[in-house]
Amino acid sequence: MAASQASRLTTTQDQVSEMSSKDLKEQINALGPWFHNMTIQGVETAPDHFLGDYPRNKWQAFEDVIPRDLEGCSVLDIGCNAGFYALEMKRRNAGRVVGIDTDARYLAQARFAAEQCGADIEFRQMSTYDLRQFDEKFDLVIFMGVLYHLRHPLLALDLLYETVVGKHLLFQSMQRGSADVGGIEENDPFSEENVFHRPDYPKLHFVEHRYADDPTNWFIPNKAAVEAMLRSAGFKIEANPEEEVYLCSRGERHFAAEPPPLCT
Length: 264
Fold this sequence. Notes:
Blueprint (H helix, E strand, L loop, with lengths): L1 H30 L7 E2 L2 E2 L11 H4 L15 E4 L5 H8 L5 E5 L2 H14 L4 E4 L12 E7 L8 H12 E8 L31 E3 L12 E3 L1 H11 L1 E8 L2 E6 L14
Parallel strand pairs: 3-4, 3-6, 4-5, 6-7
Antiparallel strand pairs: 1-2, 7-11, 8-9, 10-11
């Protein structure tokens, strides 16, 4: 009798678990489509992602550049999407974590994922150009996959430096063109034109219409441009652990760089 009751109990628990899993999948699908493939209670949000297990597969290539224990550190994730990196910072014991994005659907995904994981993360709908709303600087600012979606990329980097980056910036941008970085003279005469034909010279490729079927891909830099723009905005490159990823600290801004208009 006892064995029979135990068998029935196990069957009931399995049915409840199956129903719960089905309900979770339905909630995840209702929030889709997802750009971040995340595993929430055993359910993947974007199992058929064209980049594979993204962004986890990218994160694994540079995660060692971030301390394993971020106790007491504040983190701002700009362009947080569904919150993958914000959650990873919480897993590393970060204190205050804030994620911002302009897309309400991504923020709904992020809030759902954080709730399911029991993570205390604040999410706000706002733009990179609204960073002056923060009256604080963060120990770590994550700015990944955002630059090339902006019509004013250098302004964005200037705003980061002037407003929210207190110690470190974790930066990533899609790159196209040459991956070579050549030596750049501090000053060239007006008659010098050949330097602009060099593939390793800093270049921003402007996309007038669409690239990869995305109308928000505006300026795509080559590697030399990424590094030059970071330095010009006042960031010191500390590490380049992955082809597109940089860990930067605050340095000195270019002597001719004016404060961004929104900070005056």
